[in-house]
């Protein structure tokens, strides 16, 4: 008979599958149920359902090819069945599915359970405010939800290469538990009691990556990239401190903050997209079709949500780089507009 706390991973794309390699190993060491459910939004891959392939071949051939998945990982294509009696829910799903999944789960989650969100993105509410997806999950399910912002590459983590992860958690007991679940010999987990700061750092770094990609596409060189990083990080820190005054400066020095933004400005889908956007003169949708097989890139969506919030608050002038990134993505101004934004940025005076 299985015993101990049950863990469920919701979402079987790259990060959901990658994190399962650590979780499934660590549940065998202590107080957890040895079987970990992962909810799979079923799709046909090579004429077979992905959940069946994962259970039979122990590999996610679509989202994490070449990585052997643990045998105690059970792929389930029914969300309620996957999450039944779960004590810890790990959300690793695209942001667009969060609300609908919470609607399905809200009457079935254990009141003693808690969640961890790997979800990036922001929800623009009807009154012009912004909501974080960790807050959405907590509100809908009536349980605590923490944020976990991952290393830059899911594949590298799954391959066992050295990496770091930052968890935003303000509950000491849950924090210790999450370390036992996620930390491995090659994956160091750092806890910050700053759920909002950790989540926003990992979300806003996509805007820094977009700006770097525009610089690449314009062939402006590494010095201009440094200016983008410098001013993008200043706007990121300013935004987070305005949005959540209790965020600690130390959060920005964890791997979720400055470090991740620097890496993302060189190696990130948003950099590749922005470079292509400048050089090809294609629309966002055309580039997504070529680079991502039609899937939506999150960076331009985040830029739109941030801009709508700044416009609602009348704060565009405080964030000229974030503002011009959105306007470039929407083709309201040419990519060259980023040059004047850097030259005349208020933080450069």
Automatic annotation (TrEMBL):
<dbReference type="InterPro" id="IPR006168">
    <property type="entry name" value="G3P_DH_NAD-dep"/>
</dbReference>
<dbReference type="GO" id="GO:0141152">
    <property type="term" value="F:glycerol-3-phosphate dehydrogenase (NAD+) activity"/>
</dbReference>
<comment type="similarity">
    <text>Belongs to the NAD-dependent glycerol-3-phosphate dehydrogenase family.</text>
</comment>
<feature type="active site" description="Proton acceptor">
    <location>
        <position position="205"/>
    </location>
</feature>
<comment type="pathway">
    <text>Phospholipid metabolism; alpha-glycerophosphate cycle.</text>
</comment>
<dbReference type="InterPro" id="IPR006109">
    <property type="entry name" value="G3P_DH_NAD-dep_C"/>
</dbReference>
<feature type="binding site">
    <location>
        <position position="296"/>
    </location>
    <ligand>
        <name>NAD(+)</name>
    </ligand>
</feature>
<dbReference type="Pfam" id="PF01210">
    <property type="entry name" value="NAD_Gly3P_dh_N"/>
</dbReference>
<feature type="domain" description="Glycerol-3-phosphate dehydrogenase NAD-dependent N-terminal">
    <location>
        <begin position="6"/>
        <end position="174"/>
    </location>
</feature>
<dbReference type="GO" id="GO:0046168">
    <property type="term" value="P:glycerol-3-phosphate catabolic process"/>
</dbReference>
<comment type="subunit">
    <text>Homodimer.</text>
</comment>
<dbReference type="InterPro" id="IPR011128">
    <property type="entry name" value="G3P_DH_NAD-dep_N"/>
</dbReference>
<dbReference type="GO" id="GO:0005829">
    <property type="term" value="C:cytosol"/>
</dbReference>
<keyword id="KW-0560">Oxidoreductase</keyword>
<dbReference type="GO" id="GO:0042803">
    <property type="term" value="F:protein homodimerization activity"/>
</dbReference>
<dbReference type="Pfam" id="PF07479">
    <property type="entry name" value="NAD_Gly3P_dh_C"/>
</dbReference>
<keyword id="KW-0520">NAD</keyword>
<dbReference type="GO" id="GO:0006650">
    <property type="term" value="P:glycerophospholipid metabolic process"/>
</dbReference>
<feature type="binding site">
    <location>
        <position position="154"/>
    </location>
    <ligand>
        <name>NAD(+)</name>
    </ligand>
</feature>
<protein>
    <recommendedName>
        <fullName>Glycerol-3-phosphate dehydrogenase [NAD(+)]</fullName>
        <ecNumber>1.1.1.8</ecNumber>
    </recommendedName>
</protein>
<dbReference type="InterPro" id="IPR013328">
    <property type="entry name" value="6PGD_dom2"/>
</dbReference>
<comment type="pathway">
    <text>Lipid metabolism.</text>
</comment>
<dbReference type="InterPro" id="IPR008927">
    <property type="entry name" value="6-PGluconate_DH-like_C_sf"/>
</dbReference>
<dbReference type="GO" id="GO:0005975">
    <property type="term" value="P:carbohydrate metabolic process"/>
</dbReference>
<dbReference type="InterPro" id="IPR036291">
    <property type="entry name" value="NAD(P)-bd_dom_sf"/>
</dbReference>
<dbReference type="GO" id="GO:0051287">
    <property type="term" value="F:NAD binding"/>
</dbReference>
<dbReference type="InterPro" id="IPR017751">
    <property type="entry name" value="G3P_DH_NAD-dep_euk"/>
</dbReference>
<feature type="domain" description="Glycerol-3-phosphate dehydrogenase NAD-dependent C-terminal">
    <location>
        <begin position="194"/>
        <end position="339"/>
    </location>
</feature>
């Amino acid at each position: 008979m299985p015993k101990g706390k049950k863990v469920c991973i919701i979402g079987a794309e790259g990060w959901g599958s990658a994190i399962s390699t650590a979780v499934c190993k660590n549940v065998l060491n202590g107080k957890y149920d040895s079987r970990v459910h992962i909810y799979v939004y079923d799709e046909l891959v090579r004429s077979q359902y992905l959940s069946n392939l994962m259970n039979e071949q122990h590999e996610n051939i679509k989202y994490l090819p070449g990585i052997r998945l643990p045998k105690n990982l059970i792929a389930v294509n029914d969300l309620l069945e996957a999450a039944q009696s779960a004590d810890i829910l790990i959300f690793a799903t695209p942001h667009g599915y969060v609300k609908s999944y919470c609607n399905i789960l809200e009457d079935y989650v254990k009141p003693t359970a808690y969640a961890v969100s790997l979800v990036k993105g922001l929800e623009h509410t009807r009154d012009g405010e912004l909501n974080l997806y960790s807050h959405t999950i907590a509100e809908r399910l009536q349980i605590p939800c923490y944020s976990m912002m991952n290393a830059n590459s899911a594949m590298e983590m799954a391959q066992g290469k050295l990496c770091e992860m930052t968890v935003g958690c303000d509950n000491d007991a849950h924090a210790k538990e999450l370390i036992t679940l996620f930390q491995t010999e090659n994956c160091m987990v750092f806890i910050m009691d700053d759920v909002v700061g950790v989540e926003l750092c990992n979300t806003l770094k996509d805007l820094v990556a977009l700006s770097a990609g525009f610089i690449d596409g314009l062939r402006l060189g590494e010095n201009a990239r440094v200016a983008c990083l410098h001013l993008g990080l200043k706007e990121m820190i300013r935004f987070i401190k305005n949005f959540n005054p209790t965020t600690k400066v130390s959060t920005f020095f964890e791997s979720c903050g400055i470090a991740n933004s620097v890496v993302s400005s060189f190696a990130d889908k948003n950099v590749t997209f922005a470079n292509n956007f400048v050089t090809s003169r294609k629309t966002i949708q055309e580039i997504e079709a070529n680079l991502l097989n039609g899937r939506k890139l999150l960076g331009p969506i985040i830029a739109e949500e941030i801009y709508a919030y700044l416009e609602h608050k009348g704060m565009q002038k405080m964030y000229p780089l974030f503002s011009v990134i959105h306007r470039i993505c929407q083709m309201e101004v040419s990519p060259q507009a980023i040059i004047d934004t850097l030259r005349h940025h208020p933080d450069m005076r």
